[in-house]
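A student in our group prepared the protein record below, which I am reviewing. I have pasted the whole thing underneath without changing anything:
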Amino acid sequence: MLTDLVFLALGCGLLFFGGDWLIDGIAGVAAHLRVPPVIVAFVIMGFGTSAPELFVAMQAMFVPSPDIVMGNVVGSNIANLLLVLALTAMIAPLAIDRGVLRIDGAAMLIAAAAIAGVAFDGMISRGDAALLVGAMLAYLILRWRSLPDQSGSDASPSINLRKTVGICGAALVALPVGAHVFVEGAIGIADRFGVPEALIGLTIVALGTSLPELAACIAAALRRESGMILGGILGSNVFNSTIVLAGAALVAPVAVSSDFTTFWIPVMAGASLITLAFLRTDFLLTRREASLMLIGYVAIFVV
């Protein structure tokens, strides 16, 4: 029990400091490159915090366990929207950047549609994986080219790029390690109290996969950095839908069970549409809307 409590405390500490470091690093990199922080957040926070999902998905296909891969991708996307984004908005309502919502929100919807498309025949092949990777790379190139010209902007000599990149790197190590340690401690305590394994999987383990995103978003919310939050969440979902799924399929073709094609993928698409509708309303995600999202997340598993 004592070891489990130490793991919980250590995990919380790593998540707390990791989230704070990541926001500092993103702000520093954005200042050095003279680009909006939301763009850096989309890449660093969105992709970096989803790296554990990529490793889990690829490892699962060595077994192989295709249901774990699909559950990992689809479940993480749903949790990022209805749980992480909603909990963040409960701390402080999120002001939404119209340009980010229009461009990156559309990218998330397209990525969700891509999952439905490649999974429709019940198998995600290596050819499908190549298409997903190509689509992700094309989007990143187009997104970079869509940025306003910053060539005439003043440089930021006070920003030490090596230091800020190092901060981001430390954060991207601390966050997944902290999440893993926290989950291990929580599972140990739950086992000692006789909590059923299924309940542990649906709660502690499911939350554990979203802890890096949650920690980073809470740190951003406390600093009122709404753009970083939205960019990080949208980036994470796009990364999950393309690179994570493609990485698993490159190891071995991923068989998709009917549960995903008939229920979970449509639920993910519905969660994406509802979230974007809330974000579009007055371009503000309120606590009332966030509470409805949280209720919806609980209802999905009750049903």
Observations:
- DSSP finds eleven helices and four strands in the chain.
- The longest helix spans residues 2-33.
- The mean pLDDT is 81.
